[in-house]
Amino acid sequence: MLCCMPGVAFVPALLVSWSSAAFIISYVIAVLAGHVEPLVPYISDTGTKPPESGVFGFMINISALLAAITMYIRYLLIEKQNESSHFVRSSCNMFTLCIGLMGCTGMGIVATFQELAVPSVHDIGALVAFGSGVVYITLQSIISYKSCPRWNTYFVCHIRMAISAISCIAFIPMIVFASKISMTKIDWTPGEKDYTYHFMSAICEWTVAFGFIFFFLTFIRDFQGFSLRISTEIHDD
């Protein structure tokens, strides 16, 4: 079904479906194995112990690659639209792409360095992934408004900005509550020390993560009218 989509719309569609599956599958395996409590664990908690750690690492790395490809196509799309409309500076478009690619790098770090094995590196990767991701979708929302009404409808722009605002609002308490947790563990139970901080931070983390997913979902329509062509030139020696 993805291959039947016009243009390159299958790329963000694949990113959204694959990333959703990565979160859900690793969560289900971790809960069934008894490694985490069902009630709102951290996303990373569901990919710390085997067998879910292998699934989580593999699928999140693929998600990071798909996100990078999606962001690059989005960059090319804006550059093409900008040729006739001149609604944004090319340097701003490139800066937004670089911020997004930083977030993809953070995702790769999170997937590669498990939470309990190398917690400091894992936490840095998570901070880069979520922080850069929030900045990226906010900048993309602003660019979307600048491209209205020719290249985007105001309805889509409002949706993107709403998702960006919710993600930004959730990102701040996610960091604040996480910083108050005095131990690194995954088997949290209600009533123990720092559980409330963990619970609130985890809710915010899932909110931001699915905010990214829903944001990329809005790219599908834009990508339907855009196709990539690879041209080759043969030169005689």
UniProtKB/TrEMBL annotation:
Instruction: Report the membrane topology from the UniProt record.
Output: Multi-pass membrane protein
User: Where would I find the CWH43-like N-terminal domain in this sequence?
Assistant: 8-225
- Tell me where it mainly resides: membrane
The organism's superkingdom is given as Eukaryota
> Which processes are annotated in GO (biological process)?
regulation of autophagy
Keywords from UniProt, A to Z, are: Membrane, Transmembrane, Transmembrane helix
- List locations, semicolon-separated: Endomembrane system
Transmembrane segments annotated in the record for this chain: 7-33, 53-73, 94-112, 124-143, 155-177, 197-220
- Any Gene Ontology CC annotation: endomembrane system
According to its UniProt record, which protein family does this protein belong to? Answer: Belongs to the DRAM/TMEM150 family.
What is the protein named? DRAM1 protein
Which organism was this protein described from? Pteruthius melanotis
Gene behind this protein? Dram1
